[in-house]
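Students often ask why we bother encoding 3D structure as a string. The short answer is that it lets us treat folding as translation between two languages. Here is a chain of 328 residues written in the first language.
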Amino acid sequence: MMHEIDIVIPWVDGADPAWQAEFRQFRIEAGMDASAIRYRDWGTLRYWFRSIERFAPWVRKIHFITWGHLPEWLNTDHPKLRIVHHSDYIPAEWLPTFNSNVLELNLHRIEGLADHFLLFNDDTFLTRPCRAEDFFRHGKPRDIARLSVVRPSSVAPIVLNNLARINALHPRKVLTRHLGKWLAPCYGMSNLLKTISLLPWSFFPAFYDPHQVQPYRKADFVRAWELWGKELAETSSHRFRAQEDLSHWLIRYDVLCRGEFAPRSVAADALLTLTEATVEQIAHRIASGAQRLLCINDSAEIADFAGVCRTLQGGFEQLLPTPSTYEK
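And here it is in the second language, the structure alphabet:
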């Protein structure tokens, strides 16, 4: 029996003057990343809704998380859409927040959220039909369990914070209890070899993060708050992302270590970096529908923002030309 599955998607309109005023008011508290580039709108959200309606009609409800603003074209009366303001589920003492870690670590507090849900970012799109079974099997989230190492990046300190908690809780030997899930053939030879090469380590060096749609269960968030409540509350007090933060990946890592998942292949998924040099190719890949999932990663190295937007939207328009019922 397949469980009901919801979608959660946080969204922000970085061009909203009221939001900008509040952002500037608190920016003096900014942590490791308070760049306004992180909040700019590519004009692709309507295509995200079209993709869900066309390629995942089995979704029960979409919980659309917003600071307060909404796209003018959005049909807020849609029976499968629920508008969730930050103040609807984030405790008041942590507001306002501009920290995605805060929004994501508290998702279990959303009233009416299904026990099984998919966490989307607004840069991640379905580009061909998907089944509920692609994300959950027998009630467990489907995922790829692959060992990795931490690469230098802006989020590396947060990853290390997550790993510190995981290694303190889970001895490395727990991997052998579910070795079949860690060495599942569906991951492909390259992923398997990377895990095997790191098996001699006496601790978890890191986990591969696919940066795609993440299936979750509310119960795993509740467990995380029971285990690390003080640390998660500290992260939730940071208005902007900080090096001391934890992230929702901590919850995923705990699920992997406990073997509470079903293996899945990520061969049909792709992570693409958007630049002026790559936008034409990305638009072509969108239009082709060759991938199951596409995550389109923003880049600061874009001079002609408007031009890149038009090209990107053109690819989506070829794939999804028909307005969805989520549009007015």
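Translate back mentally: The two ends are 35 Å apart (CA to CA). Keep this in mind for the problem set.
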